[in-house]
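3.2 Worked example (two chains)
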Amino acid sequence: MKIAFFGSSILSAYWNGAATYYRGLIRSLHARGHRVTFYEPDAFERQKHRDLEDPSWVTAIVYPDSSEAALRQVELASDSDLVIKTSGVGVFDELLEQAVLDFRRGSQIVAFWDVDAPATLERVLNRPSDPFRKLIPQYDAIFTQILSQPSSQEVTPYFDYFVLEAMAITGHRSEALDLIREVWGGMLNAGATAFWEIDPPGCANATDVGRCLIEDFDKFSSQGTRYVMSMAHGWSSGPGVFLMESGL
């Protein structure tokens, strides 16, 4: 597969923590036979601080720091099978987010790869006028650590509210309802009359639910042993707000 990435930089980690992430990911894609081109702007003096020169596993194209040059690169990438716009390019982000969709050709897949999910969520949830909100459903795929959260990693019902919001914004309303049934429905099925502070796997079916919650919390807590656990936690009531706001 021919893949085009539009990101901050793969050649320089200067003020660019995502560089190591991109390098590991793209090296793995190359090892699997994919051809990757990485387009990065000549911005923030990164090219003066390169720490990677001419890697064999990616074609790196550095374009001038101008909107015209950015659009030209998107046009050049229009023959790719997959075009990926990453978050946090740093310059012309809004222009690139629109352009990769405008230049889409035929069966080409266009994806948004989120390397800073909290910042993106803050952007789309708290800025109603942000143009990216309307573009999200037009992307073929959204890759983000939150929406692909492995089931083995626990998150609290409080945080799951923001996952619901992200799912709704990205067009995954049915999956949002499934998450409500799984998390909050599981508590109700266990006999809960109010929502718990945490909802670890297995506790809903435990003989002593309260003890299970406390022991699970202690595994991750930086606050020392907990002797009580809130089983009527107001911050876990996100679906009430979500269902009203989303009109579901």
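3.2.1 Second chain
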Amino acid sequence: MKFRVDRDAFADAVAWAARSLPVRPSAPVLSGLLIDASDEGLVLSTFDYETSARATLTAEVADEGRALVSGRLLADMDGLIASAVEEGFRYDCPVQGNLRGVLRETEVGGHKLMPGDRAYLFYTSANHDPAHYDEPDRFRIDRDWTREARHYAFGFGIHFCLGAELARAETQIAIRTLYTRLPNLRMKAGFRPQQVPGMVFRTWAEIEMEYDGAPLPRLSESSGAA
């Protein structure tokens, strides 16, 4: 891929596209910049897990092509996949909280609770507690989980999720497989996913993705496994 474009115009377009993305995550897990050069000019598309933006520039294209400048996770999958998945569970856990029964008289945050009362434990709130997490409202893909407090995405104590390790493994495998087998996988340009609100569960209604070319071989096939 070869093209010639005004340097200042290119810099302004990249800056505008970057500003259009949510400022909440400091380094979105699935973010990137797609550069598409054709006889119609140069198209820059930025995207992450919530939104996307596109800017078109006039350019002299000598050799058409497409290139993905990936985010940090895609650039260092082996080094960041574990911390990225763990941070995802902390930042926006799929189970927001749950009801628990009060067994003895106690006080929480200045509110008296009596035996028989029902309390809603909001895991997401605990996972963003500034007393326990450094910069809790930033998505830090390289958060050091050997130093940070354990998050509550899987509950706590006798109610801790028995499938926590399975969920971690499945999520890591799914992300690695999708982004290894589907070239330049990205959110569909212009698509804005909507979250399904809920007191306990929160998820996405749908996610529209696109990629280039045909899927690559399964990981087991590319490694020569039976």
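3.3 Remarks
The helical segments are 7-20, 72-75, 77-91, 123-127, 164-181, 219-222.
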